[in-house]
Amino acid sequence: MAHDDPYADTSAVGLSLWLVPAEPAGAELAATIAQLASTFVAASSAPRDLPAFPPHVTVAFWHCSVPRAEIEAHAAALAQQTARLSVTLEAPEPGPRFFQCVFARCAASAELCAPNALTQQRFGTRDAYMPHLSLAYGDLSDATKRAVALEASALAGRLVPLDRLQLWDTSGPVEAWALVRSFALAA
User: Fold this and answer.
1) How are beta strands 132-136 and 102-105 bridged, if at all?
2) CA dist., res. 79 & res. 119, Å (int)
3) Residues 151, 102: contact at Cβ < 8 Å?
4) Which residue among 31, 94, 105, 126 is least packed, with the fewest CB closer than 10 Å?
């Protein structure tokens, strides 16, 4: 993994804030992620590759040093000022990091990028933001990543409605991640 990967050591990661697809799109995307994992897990060389995870577009994450109450209050306020929105998925592509192994970028819009911008402003961070929906996590070979992206190519152009912000404890291995709070976006 690259040294600039903020998730390279998940022991220091505390909470992650996600925009989550509305149903039935969420269930359909979860099924796609699970199907990709089951199809390509044999091509993996590490047991932590291709774990199951809920579909989401990450807004931000915080290391465990940031107080949880402060993050929860921000997430609740952010949900009240963020309207439900839809994103268009671009063609799935291989990525450079475990948590961006294969993903579909989301066509950027002011509405989609606003929650991240407001979060960075609130917490004084300056990170590049690339809205995307991950389809596979892992340290896979380039050939396997390309195969996964090709297998998921039908998602290109898909419109995905997002209707919730969810705060997740994303410390430790993916299998141990847990939902902390869920907030409905403004109608």
Assistant:
1) antiparallel
2) 11
3) no
4) 126
Average pLDDT per 10 consecutive residues for the chain, totaling 187 residues: 48 84 98 93 76 95 90 97 97 94 96 97 93 94 95 97 97 91 95
Rounded to whole angstroms, the Cα distance separating 83 from 59 reads 14
Give the Cβ contact number of residue 125 at 10 Å. 11
Question: What's the predicted TM-score (pTM) here?
Answer: 0.91
Domain-embedded: residue 154: yes
Q: CA separation (Å) from 103 to 83, 139, 178?
A: 24, 13, 22
In a domain, 17, yes or no: yes
Torsion, Cα 80 82 86 90, to 10 degrees, reads: -130
Tokens found for residue 157: 């152009």
Q: pLDDT at position 10, please?
A: 54
Closest CA to 17 of 97, 103, 95, 131: 131
How confident is the model at residue 3, as a pLDDT?
40
Flag whether 89 is in a domain. yes
Which domain does 135 fall in, by range?
Answer: 10-184
- Domain CATH code at residue 57: 3.90.1140.10
3-state secondary structure 84-135: CEEEEECCCEECCCHHHCEEEEECCCHHHHHHHHHHHHHHCCCCCCCCEEEE
Q: How many domains does the chain have?
A: 1
DSSP state of 12: G
